[in-house]
């Protein structure tokens, strides 16, 4: 049965093939369209892919031909960059001794002449090298061939001037932030205020502050009989255990007989001190430079330049060069120019009797001229050292009818005292100052008691 079906399938397939052949013959005899004929002539362009290279065939025909691998692209090996090796450094440092110069110290540090000049210019950009003195110190960090990397000059009050020599040289000042400490003490006067302060471990310079404030009320050589009590409160700026700058009085109380004199110095840097007698305001002193204390008061003294004893006709304020100088009272500029001994000076007339003089100035404001009116607090110059002066300072002088008078005892320029006395703020300030003084003294007593146990 299976053979029967197989025979039928073969016959059928043969008949289909026979039918297809005549049809195929008829198609080839038909005309071919031109577009089709043109397309039939197209042949592909040769490919750009290189044929594999065949190795020569071996004698034996049954061995497969060897095909070589295509060449691989070459690889460039980059060596890793080596770390930059910094040259070894050496540090030289020393404290400046008397008579030494910056250039001499830099020679000792091993720097060449041209390098020393560059270091001096860098430090001079932030510090006056003429102010170098014993106690300052210099540190130089350099390579072994003498190229500086860092130079540090340590001066007063913990201030450092640093010059860094890198791709670009840079100089800057580093000033530490001091801690403000409030102190108080009580002293008993036996012979003089100076001796009492020295014996009590209190800064002796406060004797000058007291003399210039109470000069118009107290004669310290005649009125002090011995046994007077002096109580003081002051502030010190400290960096660690070192005192920075000068201490500043904030309150003083002096009992002379039945009279109590008290002085309050403000803590805002204005320098406007108020003097009380038995609790009432008697004077307000406004100095011509803010925050400065007199370095030399009115009266006979040994001249700092000539060495002889002569009359000092004003008050000196020793402050930095360029410090602003202000008019202490309203008036009209009566003189601008140079005077023998005074240097560059400005004189202001306050009415027909009183004049004030501001001497040793380094400069006066542009446009200020004789005849101009000024108000109290107007800028009239800057501190300098012109004329006969040992250093930057302001000589402030008051003349009445042409004769010099003590600027700190004359009341013609102290009109502000009347305004302050009329207000309750003056009494409030006095009460607060008394309370703080008592609190500080109580701490001193408690500390001394503990230490003695």
Automatic annotation (TrEMBL):
Query: Which InterPro entries does this entry report, sorted A to Z?
Result: Cell_wall_metabolism_enzyme, Dup_hybrid_motif, M23ase_b-sheet_dom
**Superkingdom of the organism of origin:** Bacteria
* CDD domains listed in its UniProt record: M23_peptidase
GO MF entry, a single one: metalloendopeptidase activity
Report keywords, A-Z.
Coiled coil, Hydrolase, Metal-binding, Metalloprotease, Protease, Signal, Zinc
Q: Which cofactor is essential here?
A: Zn(2+)
- GO biological process terms, semicolon-separated: proteolysis
Q: Does the keyword Protease apply?
A: yes
Instruction: Write the signal peptide boundaries.
Output: 1-20
Sequence ranges assigned to domain M23ase beta-sheet core in this UniProt record: 310-407
Pfam families reported in the protein's UniProt record: Peptidase_M23
- Give the residues annotated as coiled coil: 413-447
- From the Swiss-Prot or TrEMBL record, give the protein name: Peptidase family M23
Question: What organism is listed for this UniProt entry?
Answer: Thalassobaculum litoreum DSM 18839
